[in-house]
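Narrative of accomplishments. A recurring question from our advisory board has been how the design workflow behaves on a single, concrete structure rather than in aggregate. To address it, we present the structure tokens for one chain from the evaluation set, followed by the sequence designed for it. No filtering or post-editing was applied between the two.
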């Protein structure tokens, strides 16, 4: 049964909600100037630590395998999404490693992040909505919610002592 493409399935709404945050951060990264570079770097690293890293984990543990089960482990869309995750992790590590990020570095990360969100929202999520039955989507939604709950619980004891409150 064809589903309307304009409406996100409830199962995927929590992940789409994260994507909205990612796009806001991506816009900040793409507009960063010499003056805002340091603050933008910190805003991104906070977003990464408290939201994006967990989001990637949930997608890789729950969402991507659900898609791979139907589309195959060698599905090109899946390969692109995984390659994006690897690239964003590498750019994030490089950004964390420098206290003086260049504008080009921030713009590259912003471009990569927003392109990745577009890939998932415009191609991967619609594919999943179409290939899974309503019942499978409900189960997927439950598993995403559960995985997010565990991920948030892992983050909340906050063992990291490098949080800055100079904003
Ligand atoms: Fe995502």
């Amino acid at each position: 049964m064809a589903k309307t493409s304009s409406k996100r399935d409830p199962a995927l709404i929590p992940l789409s909600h994260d994507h909205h945050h990612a796009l806001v951060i991506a816009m900040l990264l793409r507009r960063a100037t010499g003056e805002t570079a340091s603050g933008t770097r910190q805003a991104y690293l906070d977003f990464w630590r408290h939201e994006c890293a967990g989001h990637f984990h949930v997608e890789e543990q729950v969402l991507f395998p659900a898609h791979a089960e139907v589309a195959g482990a060698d599905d090109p869309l899946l390969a692109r999404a995984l390659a994006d995750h690897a690239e964003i992790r590498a750019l994030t590590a490089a950004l964390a490693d420098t206290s003086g990020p260049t504008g080009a570095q921030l713009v590259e990360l912003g471009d990569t992040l927003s392109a990745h969100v577009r890939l998932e929202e415009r191609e991967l999520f619609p594919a999943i909505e179409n290939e899974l039955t309503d019942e499978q989507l409900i189960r997927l939604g439950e598993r995403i919610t559960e995985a997010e709950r565990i991920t948030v619980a892992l983050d909340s004891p906050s063992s990291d002592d490098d949080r800055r409150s100079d904003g």
